[in-house]
Design brief:
With about 350 residues, the protein is of the alpha/beta class. It contains 11 helices and 10 strands. The radius of gyration is 31 Å and the shape is elongated.
Length: about 350
């Protein structure tokens, strides 16, 4: 059963009771929800703060020490809610003051239902677009900051591994070679065997470091093989079982799609291992018409999407932002579904592009 959409909630600010009720009735007839009527600037600010409407219809001339313009300024700056002015006055000085509050519309009394409908619809659309742009900007800032942090952290890790492991191996070989120079008249078989062992260990360290940065099988064998490898590695470390299903394609996917899918799965598995307490993970890589569909589901403890989005916007959960950015870069869309106690699902949908299409 499909849940009907919740109508936008609108607060009416008008000190003439008959006019206020008429506006509220018109809004209901147009499919909106009238959440209340305020008759003064102070009451308008308080009700906007308490009710959190989607839009405020504000009369400029109100009884009391403050008018609608002052109330609109507070509502916009403090609550970030869109305001549409309704007034019978069109004097230039009033318009100039009103413009300073960045209103989303201006309707002169008397107005028709069509004028009201058009102005409210455009104001809601503009506010929605503005909110999306603001959230996107915040996400990009948080992601950029996190990218720099992760980049420096990765550089430090590589530098430490090169210095502590590979550097020590090379130092040991150097010492053995210098010792061999001093012991020319004695058998060097034991030193040579030790040098070979140290070189083999150093090669293993280099391979492990290279695999951590980017698994070679992603380039050599393709996405399915790389995902099979990373899921087995995660399952062995974290203790959950993984069921991996993939479509057997005739051609390789485009390199940017393979990289994005691999990193999204890698990040999702990392989050599951850290937070989900899951016992089973299902990963599916399918083709539906001209779309690639990647789905990662777990039976873990789940989480609140609202809390996760708030942490992401604050820059405290940039793994999700990174996955969304990777999806955007390949022309796709990433969706996340979860609720507390009901597991979670990460799904990527993007155009299917083969390797040959990028040549």
């Amino acid at each position: 059963m499909q849940v009907p959409p919740i109508p936008p909630r609108i607060l009416v600010v008008e000190d003439e009771a008959i006019v206020a009720r008429d506006i509220a009735q018109q809004l209901v007839a147009l499919g909106y929800a009238s959440v209340g009527i305020a008759t003064s600037a102070a009451q308008a600010v308080q009700m906007a703060q308490d009710l959190k409407p989607d839009l405020v219809l504000m009369d400029i001339q109100l009884g009391g020490p403050s008018d609608g313009i002052a109330a609109a300024d507070t509502i916009r700056t403090s609550l970030h809610l869109p305001v549409v002015f309704i007034t019978a006055y069109s004097a230039d000085e009033i318009l100039e003051r009103a413009k300073l509050t960045e209103p989303f519309g201006y309707i002169l009394k008397p107005f028709s239902e069509r004028e009201l409908s058009t102005t409210v619809a455009m104001a809601l659309y503009k506010h929605h677009a503005e909110t999306r742009l603001l959230n996107t900007t915040r996400q990009l800032k948080a992601l950029s900051r996190r990218v720099l942090e992760v980049q420096e952290k990765e550089r430090r890790r590589v530098a430490v591994e090169l210095h502590d492991e590979l550097g020590q191996s090379l130092t040991a070989i150097k010492i053995n070679l210098q010792l061999g120079e001093r012991l020319r008249d004695k058998p060097l078989a034991e030193l040579n065997r030790e040098n070979i062992r140290i070189v083999e260990d150093a090669l293993q360290q280099v391979r492990r470091l290279a695999t951590t940065l980017r698994p070679s099988m992603l380039d050599d064998l393709g996405l399915a093989a790389a995902l099979q490898w990373v899921t087995e590695q995660s399952a062995n470390r974290s203790g959950f079982s993984v069921n991996f299903h993939h479509v057997r394609a005739q051609t390789r996917l485009a390199p940017d799609i393979e990289t994005a899918c691999f990193r999204i799965v890698q990040e999702a598995l990392t989050n599951i291992a850290r937070h989900a307490r899951a016992k089973r993970v299902d990963i599916r890589l399918d083709r539906e018409d001209d779309l690639l569909c990647l789905r990662i589901s777990d039976d873990g403890c789940g989480f609140s999407l609202e809390d996760m989005q708030a942490r992401a916007l604050a820059g405290n959960s940039t793994g999700v932002l990174g996955m969304q950015e990777r999806a955007t870069l390949i022309g796709g869309q990433l969706t996340i579904q979860s609720s507390v106690g009901a597991g979670s699902t990460v799904q990527l949908s993007c155009p299917w592009r083969s390797h040959e299409e990028t040549l």
